[in-house]
Structure formats: structure tokens, C-alpha cells
Specification:
By secondary structure, the protein is mainly α. The chain contains seven helices and no strands.
Length: 203
């Protein structure tokens, strides 16, 4: 039938395609000369060597080149030599424990005024001492730090991304709280101008 006749034709076509591919490969191999590659490598190597001796030392951007090399080496090695463990400790357990400590100190200082809601409590008192002397929302800063630290400790990219989203959310929530606090306390606007929101001297 038609199918039986088509099968040999398809096989022949496939065979022609393989033959063409083989011929092309043979030509590529025949044109490939080790000597040519070696000569080109020597020319490029010589050019790079000349480039390294050009220009005024200290004005060619050596620091940028060295920093690039350090980054690439660290990526290849899979870490940062010598200080890698220190950085991990500070960015992981350090942030986690520091965040928990900051949350705790914020709660203790705020006392009976502590609430999870945006609206302040009826007996809310403006706190400007303890951690509140340095940042306006120490509990939120602590929560963000602890969340990032926990993400690092557990090696979870998802947790670190969620910590970033938490930071954005808490920033918005804190802004709403401050509107309510400004209505309740005349001195809040002055306090807001003098004290950072989450990170001293930064934000």
C-alpha cells in the first residue's frame, strides 16, 4: 500500500541526511588545524600581555578588575574564604537572635500599650526611651531581621523572599500606625522627624 511504499522513501531520505551531516563533519575536521588554533592563541595571548602593560598604573581601573576576579573566584570556590563563616554567622544566627532580642525589648518597653492592631490602645503612651530612642518600630525591625536570619539559617530562598515581602508589608502597616499615633500624640511628629523608622540613620 501507500504506507509500505512511503517507508523506504523515508528511510532513504534519512540516509541522505546522515550522509550530508557526515560529509559536513569530515570537512570541518579536515579544515581544523591544531597549528592554526595554537597560532591564534599565541597572538591573543601576546595582545593581552601588551594590554596589561599599557596605561598608567593606578589609573586603569585595577581595583575594578581585581574585585571582579575576587567575585569570580568566590563563586568558583562556592564561598568567601576566611570570612565566609563569620558572614554566615552574622547574617544567619546573628540576625535571628538579634531580631528576637529586639522584638522582646520592644514589647517590654511598650508594655501595656502593645497591640497587634493599627489603632493604638486607649491608654497608649508615647515611648521614646529604650529601643524607641533609636528606631520608631523596633518590633518590626526585629521581625524583619529574624525572618531574614531564619531564611539564611535554613538555606531557604523562599523564606528570604517572604522576609522581603514582610518588610514591605510592615513598612506600610507602620505608616498607617503613625497616622493614628500622630492624631493621638501632639509630640509624635517631632519624634518622627528625629528618630529613624526601622534602621538608625538609614531609614
Amino acid at each position: 500500500g501507500v504506507g509500505a511504499a512511503a517507508a523506504p522513501l523515508a528511510a532513504a531520505a534519512d540516509g541522505d541526511g546522515v550522509a550530508v551531516a557526515d560529509e559536513g563533519l569530515k570537512k570541518a575536521v579536515s579544515n581544523f588545524e591544531i597549528g592554526d588554533v595554537k597560532d591564534k592563541a599565541m597572538v591573543v595571548g601576546g595582545a593581552i600581555k601588551d594590554n596589561l602593560t599599557q596605561g598608567q598604573v593606578g589609573e586603569r581601573g585595577e581595583a575594578w578588575a581585581a574585585t571582579q576576579l575576587v567575585f569570580l573566584l568566590c563563586i568558583l570556590l562556592g564561598g568567601i574564604p576566611v570570612v565566609g563563616d563569620v558572614i554566615f554567622t552574622l547574617s544567619g544566627p546573628g540576625l535571628l537572635l538579634g531580631g528576637v532580642a529586639l522584638i522582646s525589648s520592644g514589647i517590654l518597653e511598650l508594655g501595656a500599650s502593645t497591640t497587634p492592631f493599627v489603632a493604638p490602645t486607649e491608654g497608649n503612651k508615647l515611648k521614646t526611651t529604650g529601643p524607641y530612642a533609636y528606631i520608631r518600630h523596633p518590633m518590626y525591625t526585629g521581625a524583619i531581621a529574624a525572618a531574614f536570619g531564619f531564611g539564611v539559617v535554613t538555606g531557604s530562598v523562599d523564606r528570604m523572599l517572604l522576609a522581603g515581602l514582610l518588610a514591605i508589608f510592615l513598612d506600610q502597616k507602620a505608616s498607617r500606625e503613625e497616622e493614628a499615633l500622630a492624631e493621638k500624640h501632639v509630640a509624635y511628629d517631632t519624634y518622627k522627624e528625629e528618630v529613624s523608622k526601622f534602621f538608625p540613620a538609614l531609614y
